[in-house]
Amino acid sequence: MKQILYTSVETQPIDEAGLGSLLDRARTNNAIRNVTGMLVYADGHFLQALEGAPVDVDSIFAKIAADSRHRDVHVFLDHAIPTRTFSDWSMGFARKNIGEIAEKTGAVNLNNLSDIYRHVNDALVLDLMVGFVNLD
Ligand SMILES: Cc1cc2nc3c(=O)[nH]c(=O)nc-3n(C[C@H](O)[C@H](O)[C@H](O)COP(=O)(O)O)c2cc1C
Description:
This protein is of the alpha+beta class. It has one domain (2-135): 2-Layer Sandwich (Alpha-Beta Plaits), CATH 3.30.70.100. Helix content is 41%, strand content 29%. The protein contains five helices and five strands; from the N terminus they run βαββαββααα. It has a five-stranded mixed β-sheet, sandwiched between helices. β2 and β3 form a beta hairpin. It is globular and about 40 Å long. The mean pLDDT is 92. Bound molecules: flavin mononucleotide. Flavin mononucleotide (FMN) is lined by residues 8, 22, 25-26, 29-30, 39, 46, 48, 50, 60, 63-64, 67, 69-70, 91. Residues 8, 22, 25-26, 29-30, 39, 46, 48, 50, 60, 63-64, 67, 69-70, 91 line the site of flavin mononucleotide (FMN).
Protein backbone atom coordinates (compact mmCIF):
# COMPACT_ATOMS: atom_id res chain seq x y z
CA MET A 1 0.00 0.00 0.00
CA LYS A 2 1.03 3.60 -0.49
CA GLN A 3 0.01 7.02 0.70
CA ILE A 4 0.30 10.41 -0.98
CA LEU A 5 0.04 13.80 0.69
CA TYR A 6 -0.19 16.95 -1.40
CA THR A 7 -1.24 20.56 -1.25
CA SER A 8 -2.76 22.73 -3.99
CA VAL A 9 -4.55 26.03 -4.51
CA GLU A 10 -7.98 26.55 -6.05
CA THR A 11 -7.99 28.28 -9.44
CA GLN A 12 -11.43 29.87 -8.84
CA PRO A 13 -13.36 30.25 -5.60
CA ILE A 14 -15.20 26.98 -5.10
CA ASP A 15 -18.63 27.26 -3.46
CA GLU A 16 -20.53 24.84 -1.26
CA ALA A 17 -22.22 23.13 -4.22
CA GLY A 18 -18.90 22.84 -6.03
CA LEU A 19 -17.25 21.22 -3.04
CA GLY A 20 -20.24 18.92 -2.60
CA SER A 21 -20.14 17.58 -6.13
CA LEU A 22 -16.37 17.23 -6.00
CA LEU A 23 -16.65 15.16 -2.83
CA ASP A 24 -19.51 13.03 -4.16
CA ARG A 25 -17.52 12.08 -7.22
CA ALA A 26 -14.35 11.54 -5.18
CA ARG A 27 -16.14 9.24 -2.73
CA THR A 28 -17.76 7.19 -5.48
CA ASN A 29 -14.52 6.75 -7.42
CA ASN A 30 -12.43 6.07 -4.35
CA ALA A 31 -14.86 3.47 -3.01
CA ILE A 32 -14.68 1.56 -6.30
CA ARG A 33 -10.88 1.44 -6.08
CA ASN A 34 -10.75 1.02 -2.32
CA VAL A 35 -8.86 4.28 -1.97
CA THR A 36 -9.28 6.10 1.35
CA GLY A 37 -8.18 9.51 2.51
CA MET A 38 -8.94 12.97 3.72
CA LEU A 39 -9.42 16.36 2.11
CA VAL A 40 -8.91 19.60 4.00
CA TYR A 41 -10.13 22.84 2.44
CA ALA A 42 -8.71 25.97 3.99
CA ASP A 43 -9.05 29.49 2.60
CA GLY A 44 -8.84 28.36 -1.01
CA HIS A 45 -6.14 25.79 -0.36
CA PHE A 46 -6.38 22.03 -0.43
CA LEU A 47 -4.49 19.46 1.61
CA GLN A 48 -5.29 15.88 0.68
CA ALA A 49 -4.19 12.40 1.74
CA LEU A 50 -4.84 9.44 -0.55
CA GLU A 51 -4.01 5.84 0.29
CA GLY A 52 -4.52 2.39 -1.16
CA ALA A 53 -2.89 0.04 -3.64
CA PRO A 54 -0.24 1.94 -5.63
CA VAL A 55 -1.98 1.35 -8.96
CA ASP A 56 -5.25 2.75 -7.60
CA VAL A 57 -3.76 5.73 -5.81
CA ASP A 58 -1.65 6.64 -8.83
CA SER A 59 -4.58 6.34 -11.19
CA ILE A 60 -6.82 8.58 -9.08
CA PHE A 61 -4.04 11.02 -8.37
CA ALA A 62 -3.30 11.35 -12.12
CA LYS A 63 -6.87 12.59 -12.60
CA ILE A 64 -6.66 14.91 -9.61
CA ALA A 65 -3.34 16.40 -10.73
CA ALA A 66 -4.86 17.22 -14.15
CA ASP A 67 -7.97 18.87 -12.65
CA SER A 68 -8.27 22.54 -13.65
CA ARG A 69 -10.10 23.40 -10.42
CA HIS A 70 -6.76 23.65 -8.67
CA ARG A 71 -3.13 24.50 -9.43
CA ASP A 72 0.31 24.28 -7.84
CA VAL A 73 -0.24 20.64 -6.93
CA HIS A 74 2.73 19.83 -4.73
CA VAL A 75 3.24 16.26 -3.59
CA PHE A 76 5.27 16.37 -0.40
CA LEU A 77 4.89 12.76 0.68
CA ASP A 78 4.63 9.63 -1.47
CA HIS A 79 5.58 6.55 0.49
CA ALA A 80 4.81 2.90 1.18
CA ILE A 81 2.62 2.31 4.23
CA PRO A 82 1.88 -0.88 6.19
CA THR A 83 -1.61 0.26 7.24
CA ARG A 84 -4.07 3.00 6.33
CA THR A 85 -4.42 6.17 8.37
CA PHE A 86 -7.96 6.91 7.12
CA SER A 87 -9.38 3.41 6.71
CA ASP A 88 -12.93 4.50 7.53
CA TRP A 89 -13.21 7.29 4.96
CA SER A 90 -13.42 6.98 1.18
CA MET A 91 -12.73 10.71 1.48
CA GLY A 92 -13.06 12.49 4.78
CA PHE A 93 -13.56 16.23 4.59
CA ALA A 94 -12.95 19.22 6.81
CA ARG A 95 -13.17 22.92 6.18
CA LYS A 96 -10.65 24.82 8.25
CA ASN A 97 -8.83 28.10 8.08
CA ILE A 98 -5.13 28.51 7.71
CA GLY A 99 -4.76 30.47 10.93
CA GLU A 100 -6.30 27.63 12.88
CA ILE A 101 -4.01 25.09 11.23
CA ALA A 102 -0.95 27.26 11.81
CA GLU A 103 -1.86 27.53 15.48
CA LYS A 104 -2.30 23.79 15.86
CA THR A 105 1.06 23.05 14.24
CA GLY A 106 2.90 25.79 16.05
CA ALA A 107 4.06 26.96 12.61
CA VAL A 108 3.66 30.68 13.14
CA ASN A 109 4.92 31.50 9.64
CA LEU A 110 2.27 29.48 7.84
CA ASN A 111 1.04 32.13 5.40
CA ASN A 112 -0.69 29.66 3.13
CA LEU A 113 -1.46 26.00 3.38
CA SER A 114 0.95 25.08 0.61
CA ASP A 115 3.77 26.09 2.95
CA ILE A 116 2.85 23.43 5.47
CA TYR A 117 5.35 20.87 4.24
CA ARG A 118 8.15 23.37 4.72
CA HIS A 119 7.34 23.92 8.36
CA VAL A 120 5.70 20.78 9.67
CA ASN A 121 6.87 17.19 9.52
CA ASP A 122 4.74 14.66 7.67
CA ALA A 123 3.73 12.70 10.75
CA LEU A 124 2.38 15.84 12.40
CA VAL A 125 0.44 16.82 9.27
CA LEU A 126 -1.19 13.38 9.30
CA ASP A 127 -1.99 13.63 13.02
CA LEU A 128 -3.61 16.97 12.40
CA MET A 129 -5.73 15.57 9.57
CA VAL A 130 -6.84 12.62 11.67
CA GLY A 131 -7.95 15.08 14.36
CA PHE A 132 -9.96 17.03 11.80
CA VAL A 133 -11.76 14.01 10.39
CA ASN A 134 -12.73 12.90 13.86
CA LEU A 135 -14.19 16.26 14.67
CA ASP A 136 -16.23 16.79 11.51
C1 LIG B 1 -8.81 19.11 -4.57
C2 LIG B 1 -9.41 17.98 -5.35
C3 LIG B 1 -9.49 16.71 -4.78
C4 LIG B 1 -10.04 15.65 -5.49
N1 LIG B 1 -10.07 14.41 -4.91
C5 LIG B 1 -10.53 13.37 -5.63
C6 LIG B 1 -10.52 12.05 -5.11
O1 LIG B 1 -10.12 11.79 -3.96
N2 LIG B 1 -10.96 11.05 -5.89
C7 LIG B 1 -11.44 11.26 -7.14
O2 LIG B 1 -11.81 10.30 -7.81
N3 LIG B 1 -11.48 12.49 -7.67
C8 LIG B 1 -11.03 13.55 -6.95
N4 LIG B 1 -11.07 14.79 -7.49
C9 LIG B 1 -11.73 14.97 -8.80
C10 LIG B 1 -10.83 14.55 -9.93
O3 LIG B 1 -9.91 15.58 -10.22
C11 LIG B 1 -11.67 14.26 -11.19
O4 LIG B 1 -12.49 15.35 -11.48
C12 LIG B 1 -12.54 13.05 -11.00
O5 LIG B 1 -11.81 11.97 -10.47
C13 LIG B 1 -13.13 12.63 -12.35
O6 LIG B 1 -13.96 11.55 -12.14
P1 LIG B 1 -14.55 10.73 -13.36
O7 LIG B 1 -13.36 10.14 -14.09
O8 LIG B 1 -15.40 9.71 -12.71
O9 LIG B 1 -15.30 11.71 -14.20
C14 LIG B 1 -10.52 15.87 -6.80
C15 LIG B 1 -10.43 17.14 -7.36
C16 LIG B 1 -9.88 18.20 -6.66
C17 LIG B 1 -9.80 19.55 -7.29
